[in-house]
Amino acid sequence: MSDSKKIGDKELAAISASVIIFGGVMFHWVAEMISTVELLEMAYGTAKLFNNPLVF
Amino acid sequence: MINELLLQFGQWMEAQQYSQMLVAGYYSYSWLEATHVLTLMVSIGSLFIIDFRMLGWILPNVSASTIADRLHKPMMIGFAVMFITGFLLVYAKPVETIQSLWFRIKMILLVLAFINAWVFNAKMKAADGSWNNDSVAPRGLRTGAILSLVLWCGVVTMGRYIPYDWADCDKTQNPTILWAAGCVDQLKVL
Amino acid sequence: MFNTILSQYKATLSVFIVLLVIVVLELLQVRAAIYPSLLPAFQWLKNSTPLGYIGTTYGSIYATVQAMHLLTMGTLGGLVLATDLRLLGVMFRTTPSEVISNGTHKAFKVTLIAAVLTGIFCAAGVADKVYYMPVFWVKMLALAAGAAFVFLIKQPLLSSKPHSEINPWIIRGMAITSILVWFTVAASGRWIGFS
Prior knowledge:
Helix content of chain A: 55-70%
Distance between the termini of chain A: 64 Å
Number of strands of chain A: 0
Number of strands of chain C: 0
Largest sheet of chain A: none
Radius of gyration of chain C: 19 Å
Largest interface: B-C, 35 and 35 residues
Oligomer: heterotrimer
Helix content of chain C: over 70%
């Protein structure tokens, strides 16, 4: 790697912070998706987006 | 007469199966509304950056036509999504929305905002980039930018008022409000 | 040698120390212990302050401030997208990324302050309700993380040297993280409205 693109303190902090925050955010959204699918399955038996309870 | 026609159209839409499905679904209406509101960041976000540049509040070193050109596509995509989701929101609850005073004012402001954008674009083309690298646009374009900001703030605010029942047909007896909101049945009773 | 590392890698060490503190506090269940003591503060905000009083009594003012909150969020979103999409090389490719990121930072600060102030008013009106909502706390966490990331990590790095001297993958990583965290703030906020 050229001297001008060396990984200094600020760069390392940026990598670490990005990985931690990205990981946290992705964990949150995956957990949300899982709980949404579970809720839809509880309500309708399947995880369908459009459901009309009147149809049952 | 227009109010009667609009009410009939709303009632026809409400009778459609897909309209009922959108409202009855556990998450469908919420996700539609969330998409509509979150897309504000793309549509209004892009538009406000263009307007702020015209007023010299942001990125004064960047040529104004560059900003307007580059943000045009994301802005248009954002507005396309807003229109589609907005139409579906009306389709899901047609009578309630068509008879909402705030929705009607929102539509009027929307039309005015688009007329303003049309005039603004024409003025920009006529100015032909003569002021492009100035930090602040000429007066006519600045007026257009301020008008744009005011009108779009009005559109968003009226949109926020729609869920509230302050001027609902069954909550008011003021004939002007009832007429403006198209409350045909309640007007007949008065 | 240890002293050299400490002095040369202050920012990196700070990030890991903050992470360590958060993990330790979670393991010791400090959050669960503090949570009940926050309820009186939220109740005070709603019942005893002018913000809470105006928010609960005048629905039209509350709705108008909510609309202002939405507008600041829209503007914030636009600024974040313009800056971060430039950093990703998707937009404004003919304009130097330094110009875009430095030119939008002041507007970002002003808009964020406006968003926080309108947000405090909105929260005050329903403080006793949002206290119990996990999605509200997610939003606050994302907001804190996003603000700390932008003001303490991203902007200091981006304004310290020409972007051509920074590893492009680091720039892209920061841009994606920034977009995701601010999207989380906005989306959680919307979900508060549904709850």
